């Protein structure tokens, strides 16, 4: 679906922004592209979606370059930009109907059905986008990205501006799109989204991919193999940290009742910082 080899790009000749990125994304996969601001995430997505040219290396989507056969290419992808790209003087429905007009009739989804799926507030359907909150604009932008039944969906910070219930809804919709066979390229610095959604993730920092694997394997590779056990003994609440192999010898301490056992594995964000030396800001 996506094949990238030795991708290099410079905004200025004297300074290279992307330093030889190599990765591939298979059909039906949710692939996370994770990194802090300024790491090269958005630049890479702009190249993949055909917005930026002038790169060096190999970039293929559906077996062709992003800037070849553009009309057919645009019909097959959906893009949610980090900053909502909407006409603020138009309503949600007017925006969606306008963008739908760029696609063949048999590719269009019903705008109202999409907004209902995204739990958009009905009172604002005909009000201008300028009166919407950030979360409402994000819902309209997601509807726009899904309008053409895309085979390949690019999402840049999809849960930005959403409250917790909205973020859960978006993750469910993304998973449903994948079940339909859609491939998802998720650009984010939100490690919760990546951990819950992605089949594989790539860590990018300073224009280089530092690690690429499943979230589970990345965490296991850096695990400290420690379990924290909370228990009671002689009417006192106690806690103890043990190396996991010792648990195979039952519980090597006196106790009355085991309350909980929690393996102290690192979070995906912990792993990112270990690989890149950078936080996600």
Automatic annotation (TrEMBL):
CDD domains: ABC_DR_subfamily_A. Pfam families: ABC_tran. Residues 2-231 form the ABC transporter domain. This is ABC transporter ATP-binding protein. The keyword Transit peptide does not apply. It comes from the Bacteria. One of its GO terms (molecular function) is ATP binding. The lineage of its organism: Bacteria, Bacillati, Bacillota, Clostridia, Lachnospirales. InterPro entries: AAA+_ATPase, ABC_transporter-like_ATP-bd, ABC_transporter-like_CS, ABC_Transporter_VariousFunc, P-loop_NTPase. Gene3D superfamilies: P-loop containing nucleotide triphosphate hydrolases (3.40.50.300). Keywords: ATP-binding, Nucleotide-binding, Transport. Signal peptide: none annotated. The keyword Nucleotide-binding applies.
């Amino acid at each position: 679906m996506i094949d990238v080899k030795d991708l290099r790009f410079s905004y200025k000749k004297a300074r290279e922004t992307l330093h030889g990125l190599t990765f591939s994304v298979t059909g039906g996969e949710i692939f996370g592209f994770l990194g802090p601001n300024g790491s090269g995430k958005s630049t890479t997505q702009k190249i993949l979606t055909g917005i930026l040219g002038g790169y060096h290396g190999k970039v293929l989507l559906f077996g062709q370059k992003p800037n070849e056969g553009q009309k057919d290419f645009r019909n097959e992808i959906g893009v949610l930009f980090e900053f909502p790209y909407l006409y603020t003087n138009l309503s949600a429905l007017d925006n969606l109907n306008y963008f739908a007009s760029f696609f063949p009739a048999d590719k269009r989804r019903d705008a109202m059905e999409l907004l209902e799926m995204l739990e958009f507030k009905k009172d604002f359907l005909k009000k201008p986008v300028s009166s919407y909150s950030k979360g409402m604009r994000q819902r309209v932008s997601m509807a726009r990205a899904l309008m053409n039944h895309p085979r390949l969906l690019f999402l840049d910070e999809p849960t930005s501006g959403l409250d917790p219930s909205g973020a859960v809804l978006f993750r469910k919709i993304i998973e449903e799109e994948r079940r339909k066979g859609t491939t998802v390229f998720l650009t984010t610095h939100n490690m919760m989204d990546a951990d819950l959604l992605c089949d594989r993730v790539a860590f990018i920092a300073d224009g280089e991919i530092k690690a690429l694997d499943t979230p589970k394997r990345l965490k296991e590779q850096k695990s400290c193999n420690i379990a924290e056990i909370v228990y009671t003994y002689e009417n006192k609440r106690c806690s103890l940290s043990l190396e996991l192999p010792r648990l195979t010898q039952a519980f090597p301490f006196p106790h009355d009742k085991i309350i909980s056992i929690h393996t102290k594995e690192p979070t995906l964000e912990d792993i990112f910082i270990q690989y890149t030396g950078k936080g996600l800001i």
